[in-house]
Amino acid sequence: MAVLAIALTGAISAQSAAAAPPPLGGDLGPNVIVFTPDMPQAQIQAKVDAIAAQQVDSEMGTGRYALLFAPGTYGTPANPLRFQVGYDTEVAGLGASPDDVTINGSVDVYNRCFTDGSGCIALDNFWRSVSNLHIAVAGGSGCQTNTEFWAVSQAAPMRRVDVTGGGLSFMDYCTAGPQYASGGFVADSKVSATAVNGSQQQFYTRDSTIGGWSNAVWNQVFSGVQGAPAQSFPNPPYTTLMATPASREKPYLVQGGDGLSVVVPPAKTNSSGTTWAAGGSAGRVLPLSTFFVAKPGDSVSRINAALAGGKNLLLTPGVYSIDQSIRVKRAGTVVLGLGLATLTADTGSTPLAIDDVPGVDVAGITVDAGAVNSPVLVQVGTEHQRGRGGSSAADPISLQDVFLRIGGPHEGKATVGVQVDSDHVLLDDLWLWRADHGTGVGWTRNTSDTGLIVNGDDVTATGLFVEHFQKDNVIWNGEDGRTVFFQNELPYDAPDQAAWQHDGVLGYPAYKVADTVLRHELWGAGSYIYTNVDPTLHASHAFEVPVTPGVTLHDLSTVSLNGAGTIDHVVNETGGAVTPTHQGPETVTTYGG
To answer: What is the secondary structure of 484-505 as a DSSP string?
Structure first.
């Protein structure tokens, strides 16, 4: 089988060599399951099916799993390996290239069927991922034949995946209706067939190659995607950028002759297509020995001591109680979560604080608010550090697949979700969620003002999902900010208009660029309203920006959902109203500039 050789230059390439795979779970704890091609397929099938059965309905549970596949081939076209991916489950290959791990079969997410009258939908299919493998689609029966289903909503990324041999559908059209979905994020992937968007309300695809795209609903965005549909917003609502302005792929595990390592890809500008088309990918290669491998129950003091001693941080699957900030102070530090490792704020802490130093990369984690209010859940730099030679455009601080929850699994309060005070920061696939369902949910219970505040300059967000915050969902104060794809729902649960207004303005905007900002650009953004407690509520506008030549917004849309709530204008005083009797969408193609 193909394994990895780690070159002295830090590049990686695939070659034949003899290497023993890590033991099942190994030093990464019992919830990291490593499969090898020599295992009996029945054993693999039984294990993945057992985990799926446990996790497929465990939306707010504490189970966390990483299913890792060593280089090689699994299943055959005649005897495929097909399995579902439930909540808080990561599926990933361990090769230098996605094509080093081939699954003949499918790795699926289907609609979740409810008994409360909601029917079968994908609207709540959150918190899972698939990455770094080749899915040679095979098997199935009926309308599932030869189709890979990834019917997901937010916080369910697909990265570094090669899909061949059959179809890829982001909608599960095989179960009973209504089959709604609210995704989604794909990056650094190749799909040989036409991808089926189906009922996906919005979707973002970045730096990939596709055989085509079936349709659009409200806000389908592509940047750096070979084979993407042409720019045509609003009819159909495709927003297409030939290149992604700035990005950095997520770090990933690889298995080599010396064991496991983490590859940290470099930052890119004006990129398109996959990073692995010619085989392995460029990047720093960090042996696992350079990481402190944390497990639930490890104290923050112990984690911080390891970070201060020069270690990187690997968070194995589980839920961590965080009573003080995990402090990332060293340039180039990598913090990587496996199995959607979750940091829960205890006693009002800020679970993660990153100094303004270059090259820090934080990826694959969930951060939960606790019952005592936290001022902020993730802090990137501080105001007094900014401009003192920290993060740089060439080696920016980067966050990928970072997901926040205020309420949902338990009581949670936080004034701000993520605050970025550093310059030159990349935010790639963030879902910042004030819960609309679950435990501890209510206007005065899971309180949170704002999902994201950006004070730094030259901050780029690619795939930004921010929902249900009680005041401005996003506040952008820094110069030269850029967002490619933004999705928002305004809060459901304001009790009345008096509770949700300020300074003569009804409600609060989804996305606010400060009046002092001179340069900002946004592409492909949608904001939706569903005020189910008081359907008569109004928001004056979804987007609020200064009127100045350097601030330009492209391809904006608003929608009123389920006959509840009104957005009077799309941006400032421009754009028509969506109302309980006029769902919309209302659109604005270009504003400002």
So the answer is: EEEEEE--S---SGGGSEETTE
CB distance 207 to 224 below 8 Å:
yes
Q: Tell me phi and psi for residue 43, to 5 degrees.
A: -70, -45
- Rounded to 5 degrees, φ, ψ at 54 are -70, -35
Would you name the residues annotated as active-site residues?
A: 489
Question: How far apart are alpha carbons 287 and 258 in whole angstroms?
Answer: 8
Q: Which of 274-278, 296-300, 504-508 has the lowest mean pLDDT?
A: 274-278
**Token pair in block for residue 453:** 């505040």
Residue 19 has pLDDT above 80, yes or no: no
Could you read off the pLDDT of 214-252 as tens digits, one per residue? 999 999 999 999 999 999 999 999 999 999 999 999 999
User: Residue 537, class by beta-carbon neighbours within 10 Å (0-12 exposed, 13-18 middle, 19+ buried)?
Assistant: buried
Contact 228, 240 (CB under 8 A): yes
Residue whose C-alpha is closest to residue 132's, from 363, 291, 300: 363
CB distance 558 to 578 below 8 Å = yes
pLDDT band at 258 (very low <50, low <70, confident <90, very high): confident
Structure confidence by residue, pLDDT tens digits, 334-386: 999 999 999 999 999 999 999 999 999 999 999 999 999 999 999 999 876 66
| DSSP reduced 3-state for 173 | coil
Query: What's the distance, Cα to Cα, between the start and end of the chain in Å?
Result: 55
Q: So what's the pLDDT on residue 210? A: 98
Contacts of 490 (CB under 8 A, 6+ apart): 468, 473, 507, 508, 510, 527, 528, 529, 530, 531, 539, 542, 565, 567
Query: What is the C-alpha to C-alpha distance for residues 506 and 263, in angstroms, rounded to an integer?
Result: 48
For 11, the token pair is: 């590049």
Helix (H) or strand (E) holding 293: strand 291-294
